[in-house]
From TrEMBL:
Its main location: endoplasmic reticulum. Keywords: ER-Golgi transport, GPI-anchor biosynthesis, Hydrolase, Manganese, Membrane, Metal-binding, Transmembrane, Transmembrane helix, Transport. Gene3D superfamilies: 3.60.21.10. Belongs to the metallophosphoesterase superfamily. MPPE1 family. Interacts with GPI-anchor proteins (via the GPI portion). Interacts with TMED10. This is Metallophosphoesterase 1. The gene is MPPE1. GO terms for biological process: endoplasmic reticulum to Golgi vesicle-mediated transport; GPI anchor biosynthetic process.
Length: 396
């Protein structure tokens, strides 16, 4: 009688053991896929990115000097969703992607300064004070950085509104969080950060103030190029003798993206669509003013969500930085710059593609279904089927 009871207990124990083994396998697969898709894939992608090489020797007559190199990251159009637009899952997914990408880039690449070229938020143009505070808190969590890394942000149309939506309250609210700084100099390099939304040229109060600030910046830059102690420049510290890097949200005027190319350029069917001045790009007049006043050696902009390289007047290069978010691009990226007072080199760093991550998840779900059915005996194991087929051939 005792032997019968032991056998009965053994029969109950075997199915339980099989179920436990199945559960452990499912948990292991799910954990491995989540770990790879939500963490490791960012390291795998960004690990392949390297800072570009730049010449560090400058010559003043016959004398050579070694110039310091500034490592700068440029990204754009993060578009953190607000309380009105976008599903909560969409918000969670995209913000996690940007947070992991940014934190991984900081850890692996160790930039000295990061510039975000506008449209940090998606609904800043109409968000309430409470919603704005929540958006800012989420931004500061996602883009947290060590104290030795500087983070600079320029305003975009989704942060303060298009020109017809912009007002003093929205501009001051943005500048209270991100500073109203227009000129930033480090390691002998000048960066000019422009509120391009205010360059409409219609004489509005904010527009006039923005132009006055740029004229003052232009005056200071011109003084740095002139002989030291010039009476016209007056007393006070001079800027480094270096042509500036111009940073803004709207691109300078161009007719369209027809001449843009590359994996992250606009889709072919959109490249020939004419741009609207003061909506897609700055007006021709405003663009000419910026080039004349500031005489930049390099321009970086955002807004279009796609990459493009153009040359203004045949000599001033402008790079449009693609969106950093999966919400706007399947293949987001950012630009890495090695910059000295006299030279620069840029390279692009691609983030994981969203479709690749989705394919991995779909493949994992299919594998889990096959694994479960096999354990339940509802689907023959491919290995056992092959083994049985091989036995049948041997018996012939």
């Amino acid at each position: 009688m005792a032997m019968i009871e032991v056998g009965f207990e053994g029969q109950n124990f075997y199915p339980l053991k099989r179920k436990s083994a199945l559960l452990l396998k499912l948990i292991a697969v799910v954990f491995a896929v989540l770990l790879f898709c939500e963490f490791l894939i960012y390291y795998l992608a960004i690990f392949q990115c390297n800072w570009p090489e730049v010449k560090t020797t400058a010559y003043d007559g016959e004398q050579a000097s070694h110039e310091p190199v500034l490592k700068a990251m440029f990204l754009a159009d993060t578009h953190l969703l607000g309380e009105f637009l976008g599903h909560w899952l969409d918000k969670l997914r995209r913000e996690w992607q940007m947070e992991r990408a940014f934190q991984t880039a900081l850890w692996l690449l160790q930039p000295e300064v990061v510039f975000i070229l506008g449209d940090v938020f998606d609904e800043g143009k109409w968000s309430t004070p409470e919603a704005w505070a929540d958006d800012v808190e989420r931004f500061q969590k996602m883009f947290r950085h060590p104290s030795h890394v500087q983070l600079k942000v320029v305003a975009g149309n989704h942060d303060i509104g298009f020109h017809y939506e912009m007002n003093t309250y929205k501009v001051e609210r943005f500048e209270k969080v991100f500073s109203s700084e227009r000129l930033f100099s480090w390691k002998g390099i000048n960066f000019v950060m422009v509120n391009s939304v205010a360059l409409n040229g219609d004489g509005c109060g904010i527009c006039s103030e923005a132009e006055a600030e740029l004229i003052e910046v232009s005056h200071r830059l011109n003084c740095s190029r002139e002989a030291r102690g010039s009476r016209r420049c007056g007393p006070g510290p001079l800027l480094p003798v270096s042509a500036p890097v111009l940073l803004q949200h709207y691109p300078l005027y161009r007719r369209s993206d027809a001449n843009c190319s590359g994996d992250d350029a606009a889709p072919p069917e959109e490249r020939n669509i004419p741009f609207k001045e003061n909506y897609d790009v700055l007006s021709r007049e405003a663009s000419q003013k910026l080039l004349w006043w500031l005489q930049p050696r390099l321009v970086l902009s955002g807004h279009t969500h796609s990459a493009c390289e153009v040359h203004h007047g045949g000599r001033v290069p402008e790079f449009s930085v693609p969106s950093f978010s999966w919400r706007n691009r399947n293949n987001p990226s950012f630009i890495m710059g090695s910059i000295t007072p006299t030279d620069y080199a840029l390279s692009k760093c691609y983030l994981p593609r969203e479709d690749v991550v989705l394919v991995i998840y779909c493949g994992a779900v299919g594998f889990l279904v096959v694994l479960t059915l096999s354990h339940l005996g509802l689907l023959a194991s491919p290995f056992l089927s092959g083994l049985n087929l091989l036995r049948k051939r041997k018996t012939r």
